[in-house]
Design brief:
By secondary structure, the protein is an alpha+beta fold. About 50% of the residues lie in helices and about 15% in strands. It contains six helices and three strands; from the N terminus they run H-H-E-E-H-H-E-H-H. A three-stranded mixed β-sheet has the order 1-2-3. Strand 1 and strand 2 form a beta hairpin.
């Protein structure tokens, strides 16, 4: 799900990518195993699609989506209430000088992928693609 979500178009460093993936895995596992003292979070299944980490590794933004896409606001509210406990789990799993502040946003990449599939399946687009192939105008 790597996307250009970085301000100014700056690419993340290898360390940011590595730390982000470790945090993503940790959050996914903790949520999956129900290790959080939150009935709301235990009652829902949340996918952590990606975690972006700031260059100084002090802020981690997790892009999340409840299973089925329903209850997004409730999921964000529950995650924000459990932020401290989640941060504690991240600090134990990812050995950094500072435990990063966690921020949660809805992952919209799945919606964008669906929209792209819809556009490519459109008969007008298919006709244009077929016409281009017939003309031998391939790259």
């Amino acid at each position: 799900m790597a996307q250009n979500r970085h301000p100014g178009g700056a690419d993340p460093s290898q360390r940011q990518l590595r730390v982000g993936e470790l945090i993503r895995r940790t959050l996914s596992e903790v949520l999956h195993r129900g290790e959080i003292h939150s009935d709301a979070l235990r009652a829902m299944s949340i996918t952590v699609g990606e975690v972006k980490v700031s260059p100084d590794l002090r802020i981690a933004t997790a892009y999340v989506l409840p299973l089925g896409g329903k209850g997004q606001e409730e999921a964000l509210a529950a995650l924000n209430r459990a932020k401290g406990e989640l941060r504690h789990h991240v600090a134990q799993a990812v050995k950094l000088r500072f435990a990063p502040e966690l921020r949660f946003l809805i992952d919209e990449s799945y919606d964008r992928m669906d929209r792209t599939r819809e556009l490519l399946a459109d008969e007008r687009v298919q006709r244009d693609i077929a016409k281009r192939d017939d003309d031998g105008d391939q790259r």
